[in-house]
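Here is one such protein, fold included:

. . .
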Amino acid sequence: MPFARVLTVSATYPRDADTVFAEAIDFDAMVAATKGLATYKGLPSGPFEEGHSYETYVTVWGWMHNPHYQIHVERLDPALRIVQSREQGRAIRQWDHTLTVEPAELDDGPGSIWTDRIVIDSGWLTPYMVRVGRYLYQYRHRTRGALEITAWITRP
């Protein structure tokens, strides 16, 4: 994996962890959170399902097209509030995504911390795609009402 990078995005929410996790694994909520930035054609409504594979046509910024984008949900554990998917399509060789939501005590009550960790490999396009991913995930978190968002890129 000479080209791979790890994108980590962490967001703090003023809602309890179970509520935030339910939002995190819902296709409709994901599509709504990226409205104005990206479109996803062909995704079902409702929550992700463990062991299922989904295909979508993703368009980012109206010009970056990724037809036949594959999403395979390898693990979904609502009790632990974790979901892991393997994704790929067109220029994306690897987009291995682990999403976790943990409870957090905020100054004004219960909250949660949502962390996305994505291993991205797009060959020589990796530096560009990891930055597209960072922008996309930060956009989603802003749209969902995150109080604080941090993001960083490392090597695996």
Remarks:
- Helices lie at 17-24, 27-33, 126-143.
- The mean pLDDT is 97.
- Residues 126-143 form the longest helix (18 residues).
- The domain at 5-154 is CATH 3.30.530.20 (Alpha-D-Glucose-1,6-Bisphosphate; Chain A, domain 4).
